[in-house]
Amino acid sequence: MIRVGVIRAGIFGETHIDALAQWGKYPGNIELIGFAEMNRGRSEEMESRYGVRGYSDHRELIEKAKLDAVTGAIPDHVHFKVVMDCLDAELPVLVEKPLTTDIGEASR
Fold first, then answer.
1. Taking phi first (over 0 means left), then psi (-120 to 50 degrees means alpha), and beta for anything else, what does residue 101 get?
2. pLDDT in tens, 13-63
3. Is 35 helix (H, G, I), strand (E, B) or coil?
4. DSSP code of 96?
5. For position 47, which CATH number holds?
6. Which candidate, 41, 66, 64, 102, places its Cα nearest to that of 83?
7. Partners of 93 in beta bridges
8. Residue 33 — φ and ψ, nearest 5°?
9. Cα dihedral: 81, 41, 30, 69 (round 10)
């Protein structure tokens, strides 16, 4: 079982959450553990819809949720920061392209 969290629960993040919830219906596959969303109203809506916990910040999700992997549906300009936070926590992360909007960050 792979325990996965999603960073952001906007339109694309909900697509990630929904896909993981669907895959999680098959035994021994994936378990959607939670998601990070700063908008409290949206977080409450998604908690109710999917029955998983919402965290107000991606770092809180990473620290508290005991994840095996993370997906990110976040704005381009924060991709690098979030990806690096995940990698620093030794978590594999799937993020939409581009990795970053800064060539120096991309080189790093």
1. alpha
2. 999 999 999 988 887 789 999 999 999 999 999 999 999 999 999 999 999
3. strand
4. P
5. 3.40.50.720
6. 102
7. 70
8. -95, -40
9. 10
